[in-house]
């Protein structure tokens, strides 16, 4: 078995560095769970300085020397430095979010100290056994819904927690022909992953639809004809009864804004579909979507407050058409809505261009855009990688 990095990576479009100002709709405050650990190390001050630098936007001024507080997307973190050690307390609204906060701490210390040996949590939450955010799910059906999209319906139990707290999950695909070995929780708060012949293929996907009472959820997979991509290959060949694992939820949610510009390619279609379905009636949304051709259009929520434009690659290889950046670059910054929020997800090259347009050319502040790369052309990580 091997330990892995935190469940959700930090960066554009990822939840662990999100705060209320990002425009992502957050749940109402609830009674908090909490846990704490004391870490002793000669380099502890340096490690805490790095934590403050990496999460500076979430830090709350305590006015007290060597005492820090951070309000992160999944909860709060309080730290007190004292004689070569730090006492860290994390708090969150439920066990899933509390586990994510523990992972934030353990992942940071693992990266900058090279070990989590001194981390042992006391308080709420389980620190061993099956993660509270893990579910084993089974294929019910697999349906081709467009030339390049396969919808797989899974059944599972206790799915209610996946209806809020982020659009995305990690699917864990076990080796074919072997009994699945699922990850467990370590005492430090990090996941311990199976390795060797039991190693799992792990990919991030959007829950397209979920019925917790009915015990099912749908995930849409972009297919890659002629390419050996594990998750897409799994979806294309999925049979009723096939078992996979799922951990989550995580990632961003529905942006809370008066005016939205949603931009994406095929891989963003499931997330855009969810966002439009959860849109407040008072929010106006313009949507730009790049797909191969008219046959790849999908049914999306509509209304007087929603305008959708489809851009067609017409046989050009995905990730090379650059239609999305071109559509944005032609816009006059002076006539952009004052309260505009831009959400974009696409191939890495387009991601870089769109981020440059939104940040530098349009001058939108960080709290009014979320731009992320869901995949990178030519990379081996395949499929919809919502990192």
From TrEMBL:
Domain FAD-binding FR-type, first and last residues per copy: 132-256
InterPro entries, alphabetized: FAD-bd_FR_type (IPR017927), FNR_nucleotide-bd (IPR039261), Riboflavin_synthase-like_b-brl (IPR017938), SIP_FAD-bd (IPR013113), SIP_fam (IPR039374), SIP_rossman_dom (IPR007037)
Alphabetical list of PROSITE patterns matching this protein: FAD_FR
GO molecular function: oxidoreductase activity
Coiled-coil stretches noted in the UniProt entry, renumbered to this chain: none
Top-rank taxon, per record: Bacteria
Similarity comment: family membership: Belongs to the SIP oxidoreductase family.
Protein name: FAD-binding 9 siderophore-interacting domain-containing protein
Protein source organism: Mesorhizobium amorphae CCNWGS0123
């Amino acid at each position: 078995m091997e330990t892995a990095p935190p469940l959700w990576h930090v960066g554009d479009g990822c939840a662990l560095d999100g705060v209320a100002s990002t425009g992502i709709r957050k749940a109402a405050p609830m009674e908090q769970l909490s846990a704490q650990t004391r870490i002793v190390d000669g380099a502890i001050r340096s490690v805490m300085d790095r934590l403050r630098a990496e999460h500076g936007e979430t830090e709350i001024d305590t006015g007290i020397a060597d005492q820090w507080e951070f309000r992160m997307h999944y909860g709060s973190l309080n730290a007190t430095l004292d004689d070569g050690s730090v006492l860290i307390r994390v708090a969150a609204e439920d066990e899933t979010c509390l586990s994510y906060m523990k992972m934030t701490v353990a992942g940071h210390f693992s990266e900058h100290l090279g070990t989590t040996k001194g981390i042992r949590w006391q308080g709420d939450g389980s620190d061993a056994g099956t993660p509270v955010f893990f579910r084993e799910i089974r294929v019910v059906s697999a349906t081709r819904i467009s030339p390049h999209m396969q919808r797989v319906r899974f059944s599972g139990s206790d799915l209610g927690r996946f209806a809020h707290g982020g659009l995305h999950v990690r699917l864990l695909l076990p080796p074919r022909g072997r009994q699945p070995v699922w990850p467990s929780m370590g005492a430090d708060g990090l996941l311990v992953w199976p390795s060797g012949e039991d190693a799992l293929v792990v990919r991030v996907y959007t829950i397209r639809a979920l019925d917790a009472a009915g015990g099912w959820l749908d995930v849409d997979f972009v297919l890659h004809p002629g390419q050996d991509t594990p998750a897409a290959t799994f979806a294309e060949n999925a049979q009723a009864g096939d078992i996979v694992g799922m951990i989550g939820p995580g990632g961003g949610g529905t942006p809370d804004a008066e005016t939205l510009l949603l931009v994406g390619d095929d891989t963003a279609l499931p997330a855009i579909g969810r966002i439009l379905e959860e849109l407040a009636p008072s929010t106006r949304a313009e949507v730009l979507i790049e797909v191969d051709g008219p046959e790849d259009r999908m049914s999306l929520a509509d209304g007087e407050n929603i305008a959708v434009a489809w851009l067609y690659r017409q046989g050009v290889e995905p990730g090379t058409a650059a239609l999305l950046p071109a559509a944005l670059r032609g816009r006059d910054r002076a006539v952009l809505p004052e309260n505009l929020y831009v959400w974009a997800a696409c191939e890495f090259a387009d991601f870089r261009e769109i981020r440059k347009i939104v940040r530098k050319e349009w001058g939108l502040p960080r709290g009014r855009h979320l731009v992320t790369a869901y995949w990178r052309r030519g990379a081996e990580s395949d499929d919809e990688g919502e990192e």
